[in-house]
Amino acid sequence: MTEVKLIVDARNKLGEVPLWDVREQALYWVDIEGKLLQRYRPGTQAVDRWHMPERIGSFALREQGGLIAAFASGIAFYDLDTGAIEWIARPDPNPGNRFNEGKCDRKGRFWAGTMDDSLKERSAALFRVDPDLSVHKVLDGIGISNCFVWSLDDQFFYFADTLDRRIYRLAYDHRSGALSDRRLFVDTNAENVAPDGGTIDEEGFLWNAHWDGWRIVRYAPDGRVDRVVALPVQKPTSCMFGGADLATLYVTSAIWDLTPRQLLDQPSAGGLFAVDVGVRGVPEPRFAG
Fold first, then answer.
1. Which residues are paired to 128 by β-bridges?
2. How far apart are CA 75 and CA 110, in angstroms?
3. Which end of the chain is more exposed for a tag (fewer CB within 10 A), N or C?
4. Are 210 and 227 in contact (CB under 8 A)?
5. Taking a C-beta distance cutoff of 8 angstroms, is the pair 75, 99 a contact?
6. C-alpha dihedral sign at 95, 172, 131, 111
7. Which residues are catalytic, by number?
């Protein structure tokens, strides 16, 4: 059995998007519904928190310092020292949508996707923010944007629509940032779970958190299930490699709609976990703008 350690009993309603900062040797993540940015420092076990003016769906660190963040209503720079927000764009005009998942590609572009806040419609879209701060819509007809992962050779982009309970693989043009040829990679409908956030390891295998699945799953490049790691929580939300040697898989989770009775069986729900899965990850890029 793989050992799973609760390292921060955060009790997040919707903990999400863990991001390891190699320079700082710290892990950042959010509680979307709690309007909270959090940072864990393994060296001291200290946890820092920033309260946001609205829900924060995702973010990336900037080369120039601070964050680029996908808040519920739009994309902005955020200054960690002062709390100042500099808005870049509010590209999704649908009032029923909010921003959700977001990450940087290896060319320093920030990708952020929206979702239908009612969890019913496929009215959302995927946007790309280039270093010159131009914003481009690259996909639409999405229910819930999740799992932004690029293959190690930058040939493919893995993207989950949690509402569809599917992960797709798209051809990815690293030079231009264009996507094409969307194909089904994984379908979890038969298992009654939904793919959420994920990451890639140094061997090119995709790791994905299964919402309502009590687990994270490692997928081979051909979509085959390579490994399943059981968790003590029903709603894991995402995972990211970190630690000094990128050998620790950090996993975020959610309380969401769990009842008091359900929480008796999973008191660590909403916590941040660390798992040694025997493989390393790769560093996450920063936004180049």
1. 111, 136
2. 10
3. N
4. no
5. yes
6. positive
7. 196
Q: Among all chains, which residue has been given the structure tokens 């829900």?
A: 55
Please state the pTM of the whole predicted model: 0.97
DSSP output for 204-258: S-EEEEEETTTEEEEE-TTS-EEEEEE-SSS-EEEEEEESTTS-EEEEEE--TT-
As given in the structure block, the two tokens for residue 269 are 């729900």
What would the two tokens of residue 1 be?
């059995």
Q: What is the DSSP string of the chain?
A: ---EEEEE----SSEEEEEEETTTTEEEEEETTTTEEEEEETTTTEEEEEE-SS-EEEEEEBTTSSEEEEESS-EEEE-TTT--EEEEE-----TTEEEEEEEE-TTS-EEEEEEETTS----EEEEEE-TT--EEEEEEEESBEEEEEE-TTSSEEEEEETTTTEEEEEEE-TTT--EEEEEEEEE-GGGT-EEEEEEEBTTS-EEEEEETTTEEEEE-TTS-EEEEEE-SSS-EEEEEEESTTS-EEEEEE--TT--HHHHHH-TTTT-EEEE--S--B-PPPPB--
- Report the alpha-carbon distance of residue 122 to residue 116 in Å, rounded: 7
Which tens digits make up the pLDDT trace of 247-277? 999 999 999 999 999 999 999 999 999 999 9
For residue range 153-211, what is the model confidence (pLDDT) as tens digits? 999 999 999 999 999 999 999 999 999 999 999 999 999 999 999 999 999 999 999 99
pLDDT at 139 over 70: yes
Between CA 57 and CA 112 the distance in angstroms is: 9
Residue 2: per-residue pLDDT: 87
Give the C-alpha separation, 46 to 66, whole Å.
19
**Cβ-contact 189, 165 below 8 angstroms:** yes
Tokens encoding 127: 């946007």
